[in-house]
Amino acid sequence: xxxxxxxxxxxxxxxxxxxxxxxxxxxxxxxxxxxxxxxxxxxxxxxxxxxxxxxxxxxxxxxxxxxxxxxxxxxxxxxxxxxxxxxxxxxxxxxxxxxxxxxxxxxxxxxxxxxxxxxxxxxxxxxxxxxxxxxxxxxxxxxxxxxxxxxxxxxxxxxxxxxxxxxxxxxxxxxxxxxxxxxxxxxxxxxxxxxxxxxxxxxxxxxxxxxxxxxxxxxxxxxxxxxxxxxxxxxxxxxxxxxxxxxxxxxxxxxxxxxxxxxxxxxxxxxxxxxxxxxxxxxxxxxxxxxxxxxxxxxxxxxxxxxxxxxxxxxxxxxxxxxxxxxxxxxxxxxxxxxxxxxxxxxxxxxxxxxxxxxxxxxxxxxxxxxxxxxxxxxxxxxxxxxxxxxxxxxxxxxxxxxxxxxxxxxxxxxxxxxxxxxxxxxxxxxxxxxxxxxxxxxxxxxxxxxxxxxxxxxxxxxxxxxxxxxxxxxxxxxxxxxxxxxxxxxxxxxxxxxxxxxxxxxxxxxxxxxxxxxxxxxxxxxxxxxxxxxxxxxxxxxxxxxxxxxxxxxxxxxxxxxxxxxxxxxxxxxxxxxxxxxxxxxxxxxxxxxxxxxxxxxxxxxxxxxxxxxxxxxxxxxxxxxxxxxxxxxxxxxxxxxxxxxxxxxxxxxxxxxxxxxxxxxxxxxxxxxxxxxxxxxxxxxxxxxxxxxxxxxxxxxxxxxxxxxxxxxxxxxxxxxxxxxxxxxxxxxxxxxxxxxxxxxxxxxxxxxxxxxxxxxxxxxxxxxxxxxxxxxxxxxxxxxxx
Length: 789
Fold this sequence. Notes:
The protein is built from 17 helices and 35 strands. The chain is of the alpha+beta class.
């Protein structure tokens, strides 16, 4: 009985203990919720919108130390290696931070070689050497790895110290997956970089809607190379943070500016309710300080409309919307066949005239559109932000603080379901929704996705090579059939040697096969031919240049050393439909990279013999190239210091007058001639149309084998919902192609909308284009430079 009583007592005590613990847990949960609410509301300043979304933590790599914890340092080298792979999950270049440490000052110089492997089955191998100097205890470097896959990123590495592999510092794929250093996924919508506190360094969060992801980094840790920003769609910071970055980390500020010029977006918040800091922001980036008339009128400025709101004369402008379409448009079209202008307001008429090759846009303006009570989207963005183009990118100035930065500072949830349930019932604020709606993702800006096939691959093939000589083959095959059949039989029968047929037939077949192979090889040659289309923006006031180049290679015999590029060139593969796997275009292709100072050596897997290969390259840097222009005495003199011949140039002087120059050799000096605007538009537009990439006739027809294959693969993808896929984006809609189309009046905007003291030129070669090969021959290339002076 005593035992039974003791048992009942223990059960009762256990029940009371569980009740007490449950009550404590409930109290802790309630207090936690109150803390989240209290902390989130006034966190780091006021929240303009009151949007209380709870961010969800995203897997984006890890910080790993080798060797493992129970070994303080490597048994071989007595060193420790720390690898930090945390970054944004997006296409672009991912910087991997490497730090090697020694418990005591070293007694000799040590050369550390690290080979990082990433992608599925190690599709990218990046290698770099760095030194641990004599007497030091640590050394840090960074290796940028191109991310050509949207999902399934894996990272592992091998380490050599003074040429001897160190197993304790290396890690295999299994160990990497256990530590979380690899295996992170694709981006959640747009990818943002924000300035955050050190406690949130390298953290990645997303709202429960996953429309975007936010990567937080202290200003002191912002990358100092523009190529390390390529994984981001937007860099978002306040006006105060931007000034701090300029003062305390000027190399990172310069890298950010170069990234924006190369096509990124910079969002600057807290410019002021009346855009008070806009003039200073304009001065910082050498942008036009003028504001669109509608904005000036709203701010209490002069109401006259001396300029068109969308002309090149205006600097800061709002974005306009109408269910995704610019609204209130009034366009003036020029009929280039008759020289007669026509004004159109009806959207259907505008669309029809835009698609008519005989009409070109000469002017565009907007008229007010009444706000309806049911309008979901604002007429324009002037209530929240204005924007201006910088190179190929955009600087966007916001009146208030950004909800993006505030989101990254709120308490995080590891469970997206919990975050969704706890998120405020209010919809995303209109300011943020409008800004996101006017921002393009990575693949839309670049016109391609590195892991998908591109429908425009065939329109930039190198002409004259890589195509089967069908007519020649038919003639040779016909002769072969006649000789090996009737002629061979008749001769052997006449010589009474029919038993030799078993020898003559295979011998003749071998000779014919060798002849066909030799003919195809010799006809294409053994060298490499390149076809390039490039657009370079050149700001001669600052010396900054950005070059987007689409390069098409054909190698009769692939170079043994691969390609060698400057370290400031970003390179992305453009995949054909006929040369991809059933799942990912990069599977089965192993590419090796060696970072060597100011160069990057692409040693393996980048070019294949007798295989059409294309890449998109982007370069942003300081350049010495320029077209010097000097006005005086009613004339305009040009000195060609671009390093290549200028075939055709149109220049807008200080007064807005147009001048033309043709056939200017490198280093030459020439006086330009004035030209009528209508004639200038006609000639430049025709130049762009004549050089528009087109597929070969054998691939362009609807009944061609290539077109049939595309349709078949599209149906297979639709049925399977898995595997091979084409990129949704097109090269024709990339940022570079859009700028070229706008200049030619082919994109619904005025043609040659150039500001004073600017020019557009077509050159024989691209002064900023890097092929990666010496002695390669260019053919059928087209290079355009848009400059300011």
